[in-house]
Write a structure and sequence with these properties.
mainly alpha; single chain
């Protein structure tokens, strides 16, 4: 009886731990994918600072586009 409870508890811990790891990896992938447009803006702003570009060019999200036109 005690061995069965211990085995069940260990099984639940392993399953929940594995699920937590999968959720963390999935969340990291989603955040990285979601912030990709901002990384592009960061890279383009760095190019402007270094003199490789004179102004922002390209397609940006609508929240950023109004700033790239000025």
């Amino acid at each position: 009886m005690v061995a069965d409870i211990r085995a069940f508890r260990n099984s639940v811990i392993w399953w929940l731990g594995g699920l937590a790891v999968l959720l963390a990896v999935g969340l990291a992938v989603l955040i990285r994918w979601g912030l990709r447009p901002l990384r592009r803006v960061r890279d383009d702003l760095r190019k402007i600072r270094e003199g490789d570009l004179s102004h922002l060019e390209g397609d940006y999200p609508s929240e950023i586009e109004r700033w790239s036109r000025t």
